C-alpha cells in the first residue's frame, strides 16, 4: 500500500502532482475561464458580501490559512484574519452576522477547530469548512464547504493535505474575485498557473537526489532557521514545523525581514539557515538577508528559481523550483522543504510516519 515507497510520508509527497489534479478536477474550468465550487455554490454570493473573513485552524492547516489570508486579500480585497483555533475560542472574539469563518482541518476532528466553529456559528457567523476527511465532524457541522480530495493521509506529518488546502484556498479566492476585483484576463492567467502546477511539482520531485545529498550534509545540526517573505513566510513556518515533527531538530520559521530584530543573534556556523528566495519583487531584499547570514559565518540553503546562478555564489546549497507567479510559489517552495525534512529525519533513523508524541488527529483540547 506504500506503492513501493519506504514510508507513507514519501509516497504522499510524491503523490502530490496527481492529488493536485484531483483537487482541481471539475473546479478549475479553463474553457469557461472560471472556478466552479459546488460545495459553496449556494452561498457564494453571501460569501462575496462578507465584511470580513476569519480563518481558524491548528498546526499545518493554520499555515495554509495564513497563505489563504494573502490570497483572499490580494485577489478578493476582503479583510482576513487568521487565528489559532485555540486562541480564538479562549478570548472574547468579535464575530457575528456578516462575518464568515473558514475552518481548515485535514482530519475534520480537531477539537479546538471544532470548538471555534461552534462558537462562531452560535454568534451568527456563516461557517465554511475545508476538510479532507469526508463526513468528518467539522465537515458536517459547517454551513457549507469544500473537500480537499487529497485521499487518505497516513503519515502523521501533513504534506499532500497541506498543498491541497492551499489549492482550495486559491480557488476560493478566485471565485470570490471574479467579476468583482479581478478582470476576466487576470482570472484566466491565474487559472493557467493552476493548470501548469502539477507538471511543475513533478520537476521539483525529480531533484530529490540533490535534496537527499544536502540532507546528508546537515543531518547533525541541532537548530535550523527558516526565512521567507510574503507568500513564502507561511512556507518558512511550515518547513520548520515539518523538520521539528519528524527529525526532532529544533527549527524556527521567521519572516526574513524580522531576522535582524532578534534571531540574527543566533547565527553561527552551527545553525543552518534555509532561505526561500524565488525571483519575485522581494528577491533583492532576500539576497541581502542571505549576505547578512553569510557575514556572520552562517550556512545557507537557498530555495531559488531555476536558472538563478547569482544565488549559487552566495548560498552554500541551492534547491531549485520552476518559476511562477508569487501566489503559486508556496505550492512549489514547500516541496523541497518536505523532502529535506523527510531525508534528514530518515538519515537520523527517525520513524517519520509515526513521530513520537504526535497523533494524526488531535481530539483533546
Ligand atoms: C503537522 C500536523 C499537525 C496538524 C494539526 C491540525 O504536520 O499534522 O500540525 O496539521 O494537528 O490537524 P487537522 O488539519 O486535522 O485539523
Broad shape: globular
Report the end-to-end length measured between terminal Cα atoms. Answer: 32 Å
**Describe the biggest sheet?**
5 strands, parallel
Kindly report the average pLDDT value: 96
Q: Which small compounds were modeled alongside the protein?
A: fructose -6-phosphate
H/E series, N to C?
HHEEHEHEHEHEHEHHHEHEEHEHEH
Low-confidence stretches: none
Backbone CA Rg: 20 Å
How would you write the strand order of the largest sheet?
A: 4-3-5-6-7
Counting H and I runs of at least 4 residues, what is the number of helices? Answer: 14
Structural class: alpha/beta
Query: How many beta-strand segments?
Result: 12
Oligomer state equals single chain
Strand content: 15-25%
- The helix content, as a percent range, equals 40-55%
Function: Catalyzes the first step in hexosamine metabolism, converting fructose-6P into glucosamine-6P using glutamine as a nitrogen source.
EC number: 2.6.1.16
Subunit structure: Homodimer.
Protein name: Glutamine--fructose-6-phosphate aminotransferase [isomerizing]
Amino acid at each position: 500500500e506504500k506503492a513501493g515507497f519506504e514510508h507513507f510520508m514519501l509516497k504522499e509527497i510524491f503523490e502530490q502532482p496527481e492529488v493536485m489534479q484531483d483537487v482541481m478536477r471539475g473546479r478549475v474550468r479553463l474553457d469557461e475561464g472560471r472556478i466552479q465550487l459546488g460545495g459553496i455554490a449556494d452561498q457564494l454570493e453571501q460569501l462575496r458580501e462578507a465584511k470580513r473573513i476569519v480563518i481558524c485552524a491548528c498546526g499545518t492547516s493554520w499555515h495554509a490559512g495564513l497563505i489563504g489570508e494573502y490570497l483572499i486579500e490580494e485577489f478578493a480585497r476582503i479583510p482576513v484574519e487568521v487565528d489559532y483555533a485555540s486562541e480564538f475560542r479562549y478570548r472574547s472574539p468579535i464575530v457575528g452576522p456578516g462575518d464568515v469563518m473558514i475552518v481548515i482541518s485535514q482530519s475534520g476532528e480537531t477539537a479546538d477547530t471544532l470548538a471555534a466553529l461552534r462558537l462562531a456559528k452560535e454568534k451568527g457567523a456563516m461557517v465554511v469548512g475545508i476538510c479532507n476527511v469526508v463526513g468528518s465532524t467539522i465537515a458536517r457541522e459547517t454551513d457549507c464547504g469544500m473537500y480537499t480530495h487529497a485521499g487518505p493521509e497516513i503519515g502523521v506529518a501533513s504534506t499532500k493535505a497541506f498543498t491541497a488546502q492551499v489549492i482550495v484556498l486559491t480557488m476560493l479566492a478566485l471565485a470570490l474575485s471574479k467579476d468583482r476585483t479581478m478582470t476576466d484576463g487576470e482570472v484566466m492567467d491565474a487559472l493557467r498557473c493552476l493548470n501548469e502546477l502539477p507538471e511543475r511539482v513533478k520537476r521539483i520531485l525529480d531533484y530529490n537526489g540533490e535534496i537527499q545529498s544536502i540532507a546528508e550534509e546537515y543531518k547533525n545540526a541541532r537548530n535550523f532557521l527558516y526565512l521567507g517573505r510574503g507568500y513564502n513566510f507561511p512556507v518558512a513556518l511550515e518547513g520548520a514545523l515539518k523538520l521539528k515533527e519528524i527529525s526532532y531538530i529544533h527549527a524556527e520559521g521567521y519572516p526574513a525581514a524580522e531576522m535582524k530584530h532578534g534571531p540574527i543573534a543566533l547565527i553561527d556556523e552551527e545553525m543552518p539557515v534555509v532561505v526561500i528566495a524565488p525571483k519575485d519583487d522581494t528577491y533583492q531584499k532576500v539576497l541581502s538577508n542571505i549576505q547578512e547570514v553569510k557575514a556572520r559565518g552562517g550556512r545557507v540553503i537557498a530555495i531559488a528559481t531555476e536558472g538563478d546562478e547569482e544565488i549559487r555564489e552566495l548560498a552554500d546549497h541551492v534547491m531549485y523550483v520552476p518559476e511562477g507567479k508569487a501566489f503559486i510559489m508556496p505550492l512549489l517552495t514547500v516541496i523541497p522543504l518536505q523532502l529535506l525534512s523527510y531525508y534528514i529525519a530518515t538519515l537520523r533513523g527517525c520513524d517519520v510516519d509515526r513521530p513520537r508524541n504526535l497523533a494524526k488527529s488531535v481530539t483533546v483540547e
